[in-house]
Design goal:
Elements lengths: L2 E9 L4 H11 L4 E8 L3 E8 L2 H10 L3 E13 L4 H11 L4 E8 L5 E8 L2 H10 L3 E3 L1 H5 L2
Antiparallel strand pairs: 1-3, 1-4, 2-3, 4-6, 4-7, 5-6
Length: about 140
């Protein structure tokens, strides 16, 4: 039930982000979700894409530093309190959220939240036992 995410380390200067997205576009890679965080010197672009292996390969060939991380995708009703219910269960179990980002399904009825946890396998177990819908990577890649 894990999702593979790629992280690209980018120089914090004009054109670097565009170069990364052009590389993916030219390779026919579709971005499903993303998060961009920066410092004064560099940024980290985290992506869920439809073809992780190909994306990693073409980005490395283009000179980017690329990492791969397992994250968890959770389907959440797009309504007030949807996120809180998840965080409440995780907090009770002492599971830390290292970072997260979200996107809305095409139907607009649900959000999908991508989580990075300090205890990934335990988080999946706790969420599933609590009735939350943890999505497999194949589902997220094809949304």
């Amino acid at each position: 039930m894990k999702v593979e995410q790629i992280s690209i380390f980018l120089e914090n200067k004009p054109g670097t982000l565009e170069n990364a997205t052009r590389t993916l576009r030219d390779a026919g890679i579709n971005i499903r979700a993303l998060s961009l965080a920066d410092t004064s010197d560099f940024g980290v672009l985290r992506l869920i894409v439809n073809d992780v292996e190909k994306a990693k390969q073409v980005l490395k060939e283009a000179g980017f530093t690329v990492g791969r991380t397992s994250v968890v995708a959770v389907l959440v009703p797009d309504r007030p309190g949807g996120l809180h219910g998840i965080l409440e269960v995780l907090s009770r179990e002492k599971i830390n959220v290292e970072y997260m980002y979200a996107f809305v399904e095409r139907s607009g009825e649900n959000a999908i939240i991508i989580f990075r946890f300090n205890m990934t396998d335990r988080a999946i177990e706790v969420l599933q036992k609590s009735g939350f819908n943890v999505l497999p990577g194949e589902k997220v890649y094809s949304l």
